[in-house]
């Protein structure tokens, strides 16, 4: 094959890889930030703004490891050596199948696994091209990935529930839970920073010639975590104590000067208003949020553009007033509100870690096939097993993930928001940290696990810590599990049919 042949497949591959990454961002947004939004620690808009940075950084700096797994370890690419264009076609049809399925599932509110989607699509291509023997079914290929689908929710659930039980015993149920929490929050800062820094340094930056030894990365991460814990104890804990217990009117930026800031005015408690209090001087009630919603929309060009861009983040996704979930929420044990509020910022930190982990792992689902298409188109030959992932492809797909998250992610966020179990900042933090531990570890060893399964397993594990089996929405969990099962066969059939239709079409003589 001459280089730059079949440019149409390269161009179409770019389009559908963007669509696949868009679907990854839209469907998996709930994996990283559902618990933070559900607990009220973040608004949907704030979560999207944070995720723009964390998803991109995770995808760009850690995405190449699992990209190699998706690209080389599902089907035996050596069978395509005689015809590299056929491999190019196969990766293209895999992207078509995966992107269409994930975007369709997102529109229906199904929290599917994007890792399942691309894996099934590539399996379908392999079978359609050369039969079942093309697929690496053993532990070095599909079996290892399938095993991770069952292990990841269990491991994530165990880790998250262990974290929450420790937090519940030593902090939430303590006699002076708020004081205990002030000491516990810096420890959680240390744990989160330590894990993330160590794995970032150990995986290395794409293009770097040398990697830092793993033991050294642990020491560097521990030092960074200890520094963050010390700063949080001096500044953040002091700010929390003054704001929550002292009732001082402190703003968020006061956290940087909390130990030396003079005493601030106390927060003025607003009296409860009655119906008569709300009547204005003109004799009518002030506008409510529902009244505002029915006002004519801004029809100017700028207004239309703003409404379109903000549509995806101006959604209520918490499900707090859903009568079908009232019994499930009532079975969760409630803890002191002041103590729970201590976990809001650290939950945001753990959400960032989960988002970073998600970007590092799931970007491979789009990057792997696109990289193969690009390298075949550029060189005219089958890429080697150790061929590096081009950084611009990582960046390209990372941007698509961010766009999908912002514009379409609310569908899945709405499906999972407080739907599995009652979520509070302390519960959400433990679920997110358990997820990040599981997913980032998988990224380190090159195992593409499903972040959907990890966060779902973590939320179920934390929900069971209430001591009531019915504190978990098992119907919702069953829906998630069913969506995981149907993903692989659906994408495999679609990609296989598209590949066969193109590859074996009648040719003009």
TrEMBL record:
Residues 1-21 form the signal peptide. The keyword Transmembrane helix applies. InterPro entries: Phos_transporter (IPR001204). It is found in: Membrane. GO terms for cellular component: membrane. Keywords: Membrane, Phosphate transport, Signal, Transmembrane, Transmembrane helix, Transport. It comes from the Eukaryota. It is a multi-pass membrane protein. One of its GO terms (molecular function) is phosphate transmembrane transporter activity. The chain crosses the membrane at residues 39-64, 85-106, 118-139, 146-171, 183-205, 217-239, 481-505. Pfam families: PHO4. One of its GO terms (biological process) is phosphate ion transmembrane transport. Sodium-phosphate symporter. Belongs to the inorganic phosphate transporter (PiT) (TC 2.A.20) family. This is Phosphate transporter.
């Amino acid at each position: 094959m001459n280089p730059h042949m079949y440019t149409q497949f390269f161009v179409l591959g770019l389009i559908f890889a963007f669509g696949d990454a868009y679907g990854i961002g839209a469907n998996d947004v709930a994996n990283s930030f559902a618990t933070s939004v559900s607990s009220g620690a973040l608004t949907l808009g704030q979560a999207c703004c944070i995720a723009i940075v964390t998803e991109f950084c995770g995808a760009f700096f850690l995405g190449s490891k699992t990209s190699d797994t998706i690209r080389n370890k599902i089907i035996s690419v050596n069978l395509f050596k005689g015809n590299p264009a056929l491999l190019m076609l196969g990766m293209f049809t895999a992207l078509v199948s995966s992107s269409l399925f994930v975007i369709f599932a997102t529109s229906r509110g199904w929290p599917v696994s994007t890792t399942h989607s691309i894996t099934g699509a590539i399996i379908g291509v392999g079978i359609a091209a050369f039969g079942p023997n093309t697929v690496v079914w053993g532990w070095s290929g599909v079996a290892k990935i399938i095993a991770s689908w069952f292990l990841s929710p269990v491991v994530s659930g165990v880790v998250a529930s262990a974290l929450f039980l420790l937090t519940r015993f030593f902090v939430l149920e303590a006699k002076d839970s708020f004081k205990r929490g002030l000491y516990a929050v810096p420890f959680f800062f240390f744990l989160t920073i330590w894990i993330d820094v160590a794995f970032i340094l150990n995986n290395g930056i794409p293009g770097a010639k040398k990697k830092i030894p793993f033991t050294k990365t642990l020491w560097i991460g521990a030092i960074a975590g200890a520094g963050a814990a010390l700063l949080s104890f001096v500044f953040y804990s002091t700010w929390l104590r003054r704001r929550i217990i002292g009732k001082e009117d402190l703003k968020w930026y006061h956290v940087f000067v909390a130990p030396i800031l003079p005493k601030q005015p106390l927060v003025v408690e607003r009296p409860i208003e009655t119906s008569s209090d709300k009547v204005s001087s003109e004799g009518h009630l002030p506008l409510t949020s529902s009244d505002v919603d029915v006002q004519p929309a801004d029809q100017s060009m700028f207004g239309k553009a703003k409404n379109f861009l903000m549509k995806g983040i101006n959604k209520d996704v918490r499900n707090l007033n859903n009568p079908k979930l009232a019994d499930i929420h009532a079975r969760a044990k409630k803890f002191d509100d002041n103590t729970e509020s201590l976990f809001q910022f650290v939950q945001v930190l753990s959400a960032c870690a989960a988002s970073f982990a998600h970007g590092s792992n799931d970007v491979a689902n789009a990057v792997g096939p696109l990289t193969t298409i690009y390298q075949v188109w550029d060189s005219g030959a089958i890429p080697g097993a150790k061929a590096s992932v081009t950084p611009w492809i990582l960046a390209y797909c990372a941007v698509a993930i961010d766009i999908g998250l912002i514009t379409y992610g609310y569908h899945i966020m709405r499906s999972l928001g407080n739907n599995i179990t009652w979520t509070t900042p302390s519960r959400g933090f433990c679920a997110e940290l358990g997820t990040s531990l599981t997913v980032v570890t998988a990224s380190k060893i090159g195992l593409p696990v499903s972040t959907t399964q990890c966060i779902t397993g973590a939320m179920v594990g934390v929900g069971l810590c209430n001591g009531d089996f019915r504190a978990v929405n098992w119907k919702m969990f069953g829906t998630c599990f069913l969506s995981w099962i149907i993903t692989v066969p659906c994408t495999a059939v679609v990609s296989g049919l598209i590949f066969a239709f193109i590859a074996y079409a009648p040719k003009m003589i």
